[in-house]
Every structure is written in C-alpha cells, then in structure tokens.
Amino acid sequence: MTAWLAEQMAAHGGVGILAMVLLPALEAALPVIGALLPGQTAVVLGGMLAWQGHVTVEAALLTALVGAVLGNLAGYAVGRRWKCRVLAPLQARAGRRRYTERALGLIERRGAGAVFVGRFTAVLRTLVPTLCGATRMPLLRYLLWSVVSSTVWAPAFVLIGYVIGPAGPG
C-alpha cells in the first residue's frame, strides 16, 4: 500500500502533493478515517519523495504543515458543531462515560498541552481536535497550539521520510 501511494504521489505531481495535504487533514478531521488512513504515512512518503527528487523538501514540509493545521481546524469545527453527536457514542456505556468525562476535564484544564502532545500520538491526533471543539476551547488558543505542534510535527516526519528515502519505493 505504501509503495502504491508513493508511486501515485510521484506520478501525479500536483495531485500527489494535494494528497499529502488531504491525508493529514482527513486524519484529524474525521477520527474514523484517521484510524484507517494515517496522515503521517503520507508525510513520511513526502519526505521519501523529496529525497528521490520527485518533490522539493520545501513542498513536502509546507503541504504537511498545511494539511495538519487544516485537519485540526476541521476536527475542532466538527466537535464544536456536533458536540452531542460526537460525545454520545463515547458516553453510551458507564465505563466509557467516566473516561470521557476525565478526558474532557483534562482538555479543559490543560488544553494547550493536550493539543501539542496529541499531534504526536496516533489515537490522540484523531480525537483531540474534536474534543477541543466539544469543550469550546477558545479558537485562537487552539489555533496557536495547533500551529505550534504542527510546526514541530511536520518537519520531524518529513525528515524521517527523507532519511529513509534511499530504502523507499521507486
């Protein structure tokens, strides 16, 4: 799957770059899709393609950063708009309700840290944006920490892809 995705990104130029933006965006915006289609895979592949000369490192970095921030904002908007619908399945069972309430309380108390750490943790990367929106974290505060965390995350994973580029597909 990874080899195919890398081939498609390289072969389709601008559309491939767009995929590098959309995959991280979809991952954070829609938790179900994010669990099935991790966006950091596209970012690592972007770094690999940069090493191979298919895209520039700057393009890989910029698209990863834009995709991460857009995805976080979309996830935040989903949580803010559909709080009850998003939280209802999490609170359906008594055991989950307790954990959900603890998670929401943690985000309310330490939202900035949750946003930053959540960007680097697979499961949290898909859930934190939605929960931040559901708790009505101030948008400017959320956006600030989303940009800060994405600014660290994107280069880290593009660099990983660049370093392992010689072992990659193509």
Architecture blueprint of SSEs:
Elements (H helix, E strand, L loop, with lengths): L1 H10 L2 H16 L1 H6 L2 H14 L4 H25 L1 H8 L3 H27 L1 H13 L4 H25 L7
Structure summary, number of beta strands: 0
Average pLDDT value?
A: 77
How much strand content do the residues show?
A: under 5%
Order of helices and strands: HHHHHHHHH
Describe the sheet with the most strands.
none
Q: State the separation between the terminal residues, measured CA to CA.
A: 13 Å
The coarse silhouette is: elongated
Key traits:
single chain; 170 residues; mainly alpha; 9 helices
Molecular structure report:
By secondary structure, the chain is mainly α. Helices cover 85% and strands 0% of the residues. The chain is built from nine helices and no strands. The longest helix is centred in the middle third of the chain and has 27 residues, at 94-120. It is elongated and about 50 Å long. The model has no long low-confidence stretch (mean pLDDT 77).
Concise summary:
The chain is mainly alpha-helical and 170 residues long.
